[in-house]
């Protein structure tokens, strides 16, 4: 039996303060525990250069040149937005409606479905919270496998309708993720033939995923608060739906923090650490964060997509020069998630092969 994501953190308890969540709406000042400075996060106040204005590419999947554009975006930004992605608008509206309804529930109800210390799914603060001294101005809900048990606790009457939306959304995201992976690899001259574990399995039985719903309430002092601290995703690819409130920012060494503007009906795609490894570092897993807003609350839904947890992921041989060794060792998704849970942003460099000079 392959390890399922549900079991990944069993034996790896993470102590998280879900139960100290404030009632965000009642706070008129930012408490100290929510006030961030560059001491809490060295990238917090990186100022944009005077020439700012560049943004991640917006790619039309119907464009015959889409594969090349995606490849270029994965190499230079590690992120891009897509339109004409084929996911029905009603489904995007459906998942936004579900997410809004979930976070509007009274906190006591949400805590009935709280994520446990060794669990994967449920309500709570972001898993990366334990690496920072300050709290984030957000709440989240993680889903993997069937959300039935949790949803029953949240919505004793309507849980089946909500499960249906999640199921349809995941199915669409699954198809889209695989399409995006092959399009981007095509731009590097890599085909299904070159990746043993994914070869010819059009039913995606080699893939696995999680859904992360995020809520960033209105904040009295957004400039000093942090919605979700900078991180890279431990995925192959992540597909993010954001509502009409800006907040997502991606980091580039030469440009600093770049805000990804909401484009109605579009989806944001970002390269995760496993795709970085698979592409031998050609595609960059992008550092990103979420900021908050003084007048509008923000919702986002991240589809975190990766391989079956016990498949060994290593750089595609075609992408390694014959006179060099691969930049990364092979690693399974389970191993990587556990490394990340312990070492956070050092995880990727821990998988790196160090050249013997
Ligand atoms: C499959 C995943 C990927 C996880 C862990 C697990 C479930 C939830 C994901 C997130 C979502 C929020 C940011 C992040 C950094 C977090 O704290 O939880 C992500 C993390 C990762 O990409 O490492
Ligand atoms: O809310 C956002 O825009 C970012 C969410 C995110 O990065 C995540 O859930 O991994
Ligand atoms: Fe993320």
Automatic annotation (TrEMBL):
**What are the protein's GO molecular function terms?**
gibberellin 3-beta-dioxygenase activity; metal ion binding
> Which Pfam families does its entry note?
2OG-FeII_Oxy, DIOX_N
Metabolic or biological pathway, per its Swiss-Prot or TrEMBL entry: Hormone biosynthesis; Plant hormone biosynthesis; gibberellin biosynthesis
Kindly list the biological process annotations in GO that this record carries.
gibberellin biosynthetic process
Cofactors named for this entry: L-ascorbate
Classification via Gene3D superfamilies: B-lactam Antibiotic, Isopenicillin N Synthase, Chain (2.60.120.330)
Where's the Fe2OG dioxygenase domain? 203-307
Q: Where are the transmembrane segments?
A: none
Q: What is this protein called?
A: gibberellin 3beta-dioxygenase
């Amino acid at each position: 039996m392959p390890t399922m994501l549900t079991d990944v953190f069993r034996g790896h308890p993470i102590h998280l303060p879900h139960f100290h969540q404030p009632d965000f709406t009642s706070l008129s000042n930012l408490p100290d525990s929510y006030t961030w400075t560059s001491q809490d996060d060295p990238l917090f106040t990186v100022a944009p250069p005077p020439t700012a204005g560049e943004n991640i590419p917006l790619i039309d999947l119907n464009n015959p040149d889409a594969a090349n554009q995606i490849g270029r975006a994965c190499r230079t930004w590690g992120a891009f937005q897509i339109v004409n992605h084929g996911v029905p608008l009603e489904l995007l509206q459906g998942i936004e409606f579900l997410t809004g309804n979930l976070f509007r529930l009274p906190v006591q109800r949400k805590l009935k479905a709280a994520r446990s210390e060794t669990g994967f799914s449920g309500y709570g603060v972001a898993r990366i919270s334990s690496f920072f001294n300050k709290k984030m101005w957000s709440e989240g809900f993680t889903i993997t496998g069937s959300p039935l048990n949790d949803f029953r606790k949240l919505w004793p009457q309507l849980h089946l309708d909500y499960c249906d939306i999640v199921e349809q959304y995941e199915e669409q995201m699954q198809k889209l993720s695989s399409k995006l992976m092959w399009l981007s690899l095509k731009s590097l001259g890599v085909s299904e033939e070159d990746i043993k574990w994914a070869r010819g399995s059009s039913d995606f039985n080699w893939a696995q995923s999680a859904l992360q719903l995020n809520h960033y309430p209105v904040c009295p002092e957004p400039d000093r608060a942090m919605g979700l601290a900078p991180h890279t995703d431990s995925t192959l690819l992540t597909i993010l739906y954001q509502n009409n409130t800006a907040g997502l920012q991606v980091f580039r060494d030469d440009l600093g923090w770049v805000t990804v503007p909401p484009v109605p009906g579009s989806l944001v795609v970002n390269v995760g650490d496993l795709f970085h490894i698979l592409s031998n570092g050609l595609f960059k897993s992008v550092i990103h964060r979420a900021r908050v807003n003084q007048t509008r609350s923000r919702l986002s839904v991240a589809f975190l997509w990766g391989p079956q947890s016990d498949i060994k992921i290593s750089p595609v041989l075609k992408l390694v020069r014959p006179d060099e060794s691969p930049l990364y060792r092979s690693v399974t998704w389970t191993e990587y998630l556990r490394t990340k849970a312990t070492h956070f942003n050092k995880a990727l460099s821990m998988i790196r092969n160090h050249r013997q000079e």
